[in-house]
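# nightly structure sweep
# worker-07 picked up a monomer target from the shared queue
# config: single-sequence mode, recycle default, output format = C-alpha cells
# input follows
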Amino acid sequence: MRVNCYNTRPMPTITIDGKPLDFEQGQSILEVANDSGIAIPHYCYHPSLSVVASCRICLAEVWAPNPRNDNKLEPMPKLLPTCQTPAGDGQVVYTSSPKATANQKAVMEFLLTNHPIDCPVCDQAGECDLQDYAYEYGRGERRCDTEKITQSKKDVGDKVMLYGDRCIMCTRCVRFTQEITGTSELYINGRGAVEEIDVFPGEGLNNELSGNVVDICPVGAFLDKDFMFQQRVWFLNKVPSVDPLTASGDNIGIEHTEGKIYRIKPRENQQINQFWITDEVRYGWKFVHDENRVTEMCEDAELIAADKLQQASKIALLVSPMISCEDAWCLGQLVRSLDEKAIIGIGPVKVVGDDKTFPSGFTVRAEKAPNARGVQRALGEVLSYEEWKQQLSNADTVVVTGSYPEAWDTPEIGEDKTLVLIDTLQNALTERADIFLPAATWAEKAGTFENCNNVLQTFERAIQPLGDSQPEGQIAMNLQALVDDMEATIFNAATIRRRMADAGVAGMREVELPKNTNRVETDMPLSEV
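# output follows
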C-alpha cells in the first residue's frame, strides 16, 4: 500500500499484468487499467453507461488475498469480468494468462461466426474494435462450417442506418437511448442467435443526440448516413475544435482531407459535453462548403476599405457573436485607432426555444451563438444590437461582420453611408456593400470561444481558407497596416491572445490549448502499391 498525501489512510494497490497500481475504492478493475494505460479488450463497457458485462471479452484471471487463509493469494474459481469486478487491495490480475487468452480467442471466434467480414466496404474499417481485436486476439481462421445467420439493413432514423449483420449485441445503443437521452427508441428483439436491435413500431431514432449511437458502436452496425461511403477514415486528419453554432462550447473534432471537411465528431470533456454532441452541431458545418459561400474579393478591396475608414468622420462597427475573441479584439483595435468614440455593438444573438437537458445532464442550448460573451470580453463595453441600430444614424462609415451559418437579421444601412461588409455567405447586405471582404469560417482559422458558462476554449484551424477569404483578425491587421503605411503581419491567434492579456483582457493568458487528437499511427506494416 502507498500513502495518499492528502489522506492519512494508505491507498489500496492492485497489480495488473505485473504492474502495481493505486486506485480509488469503488473503481472496477477495467477502470483502473484504463486510467493506467493498460489495454483490456472490451465491447459492452462504456464509462457513461451502466455495466452489463455481456460481451465477456474482458474476462481475466484474478487472484486475491484470502482472509480465511492468512491473506494468502488464491485464484478466484473462474475468470471474472473486469468491467464489473471491483478492484480490491492486494489483488493480482492476469489479462494475458493462458486462461484469459483462451477466453479472448473464444469470444472473438463466436462473434465472427456470423459476422459478414465486409471490412473493405464498411465505413467503420480503420476505427473498428472488432477489426482491431480480431487482429490482436482472434484465431485467424473460421472453424465453424455452418451457414451464417444474416440480418437485413434497417433505416432506423433520419441520420442513422443499422446494418444488423455487423451487430455484436453489446447493447451500448439501447442503453444510450434509455440512460443518456431517456427517449428509449431502441430495444432488443428476440433471443439467442437471432436477437437483434430494432426500433419500436412507429418510432424513429430521431432525438437531438441520435448521431452519438454511431460514435459508441464498437463495430460498423450503426452508420452515419451523411458519411456513408464518402471517405476512408485513415485518410482523414483530425483537428480539435469547438462548437461553432451554439453557446454550449461542446468539444468537437473536425475530420478533413485535401481541403474538405467530411465529418464532425465529439471530443470528451466531462465538464462541458461529456462524450456527446447534438446532431445540430454534428451536421451544421455544411455552410463551410455551401454554394452560397462568397470567397472572392474585388481587386484593391482592402486598399479601398482602408481609404474609406481613414476618411470617415464617425465609424460604426457591428461585431458578430459568431467570430472569435481574437478576431473581435483586432477589429476593435482597428476601429478605435481611427475613431476613439466609435459606435461598437454586438450582432444579433439568435435564441430558439428553451434549453433542453437530458437525463444524463447533457444540455442542448437555445442560444445559437458560440461567442457572444467572448466578444464582449474582448471589446469591453459594447452596445446591444438594438442599441447599436438606434445610434447607427450618427455614423457615416459602417463596418459589419456576419459569419452566420445561415440567413441572419441584417441591419438596414442607408445609401448615404459607406458599408464595409466582412462576411461568408450571400445575404441581404452582400449586394448593398460598397466593399466586400470575404471572411474565413471557424474551421479555417484558430481562435477562442467563450461559452454560456464563461469557459474560454481554443480551437485550431482545420483547412486552409477558401478563395480570398481570411480570418476577420487578419483583415483587421491588413487594414491597420494600410492605414499606418506598414507591412502587414500574419494573424496568429496565440500571439493575439498574449497581446490581449497584456492589454488587460481578463482570462486570455490562462486559456489552454486543446489536447492533440490526431490518430495513433498503426503498427501494421505498410507497403507501397
